[in-house]
Amino acid sequence: MNFERLFQGRRTEALSPVELEVLNNAVSQVRECPAGTVVVKQGVPVHESLYLVSGTVSRNVVDASGRRHMMGLHFGGDFIDLHAFPLRVLDHNLAALTDVSLAVVPHERLTGILKDYPDLTGRLWFLTLLDAAMHRQWSFRLSSLSAPARLAHFLCETNARLIATGVSDGRRYPLSMTQAELGEACGLTNVHVNRVLRGLREQRLCTFRSSVVEIHDLEGLAALGEFTPDYLYLDETINQQALGLIRSPSYG
Amino acid sequence: MNFERLFQGRRTEALSPVELEVLNNAVSQVRECPAGTVVVKQGVPVHESLYLVSGTVSRNVVDASGRRHMMGLHFGGDFIDLHAFPLRVLDHNLAALTDVSLAVVPHERLTGILKDYPDLTGRLWFLTLLDAAMHRQWSFRLSSLSAPARLAHFLCETNARLIATGVSDGRRYPLSMTQAELGEACGLTNVHVNRVLRGLREQRLCTFRSSVVEIHDLEGLAALGEFTPDYLYLDETINQQALGLIRSPSYG
DNA sequence: CGAATAATTGACCGAAATCAATACGGGTGG
DNA sequence: CCACCCGTATTGATTTCGGTCAATTATTCG
Description:
Two copies of one chain form a homodimer.
Chain A: H1 17-26, E1 29-33, E2 38-40, E3 48-54, E4 56-62, E5 68-75, H2 84-87, E6 93-96, E7 100-106, H3 107-116, H4 118-144, H5 147-164, E8 172-174, H6 179-186, H7 190-202, E9 206-209, E10 212-215, H8 218-224, H9 236-242
Antiparallel strand pairs in A: 1-7, 2-6, 3-7, 4-5, 4-6, 8-10, 9-10
The structure holds a DNA duplex (30 and 30 nucleotides).
């Protein structure tokens, strides 16, 4: 199931073989869902948590006027609703933005881990708090950045996370989102996202086209977005790469 | 130390006498800080977590232009930086808005709880995820609500939380914040907060004056703010009170 | 090829920010 | 006891960023 990716690129030590084994044994099945599926519905009690093997999943709520607002985004290697284990009910939806593959972990087995593997429990706890740290950054983005800065921040954050899992080479990564979805994530309309993206392109900061993000000036983009990746707890090398201060080894 | 308040008014069962005892024994000292103190500084490794006995503490970051942005607010009875236990370093500051009294819990003792008390660990984990749920609502507020609705939502949330701890009678509660701080919490300028508060007063929804919030029409305020308290996991009665559907017993 | 979805561009509008005064209120010290 | 101050609150005039409405052009995919 490749649970190694849970801590890949992080400042913490890797999971031990025993811990990996324990997690693998906790999986009851693998579920495939097509793009657009609401994987977990707001307010419905759940008895299992999902590890995202591949694909992209968004965390969103729908407001009174029917508009969707994204409060989180997840990629392959994320334990996307581990927090449903202590909480039991989610206050938001999880929706597949692409076709996804999900490993299902029943909560009984997580209870077993809680009882028998305190260290692993602490690490799973850590993961849920990493999500909380991202939530705080998403708030920061909304409350204090201009539209161009918000997009810059979002694209830098995503770049940093995807460097950690080896999906981004540091300057270029796939991102299957529409401009409207980018708007849902940054609190902007699709129209304005379009204009702002043009601006970023014209300033030679980055290009987003046909589901690929290409960063021309990472340092500039990070500066515009007031982006510092510390809250992602990445290991020091990746941290530097995410700021554009050093090149990633895989960068051509 | 009155750790009962940790789950007071929540949909979950109360802490057992043993668990209360364990938590009480985990406290190494009680610390008093005057208003304005930065209790925990962003980026500085910490080896203890703080339980807020009394007073108000804000969670904030400072942006490039020096403006402060609030990403959370805590009152007496909240375990304010429990997440520092798995994370080790915070990505934001904790600042005392009033004089505060803090119970200090060294992380070694939390490690002991993690090893020996899986149930209690699960409940502490739950508490940190409650904060995450509030973060999501704060994002929601910023991305989808107008200025009046943001303030309405904020005031309803705070009311709900303070009903749970017995501080609000359902329509009236003390809130030691300036209009500027209200703005930091809702992503608005002090000037605009002032105008919007006047609007809420004129619509007979609520009044905020000399550090007291008085709600004249709770149902209306909740509707304006698109507020639903489900994410706070309050018990059903308090949930209804927080929406203004029933009166709280303590309401005169 | 054609239908649906996504992207792009233009004209206009409006909510909240900004800039700038003024008023209030409650402590402090003369 | 009153005068002074400083932080907070209030109000007005103006600007601006991003939203809304509306239309057109690209893409993608069956």
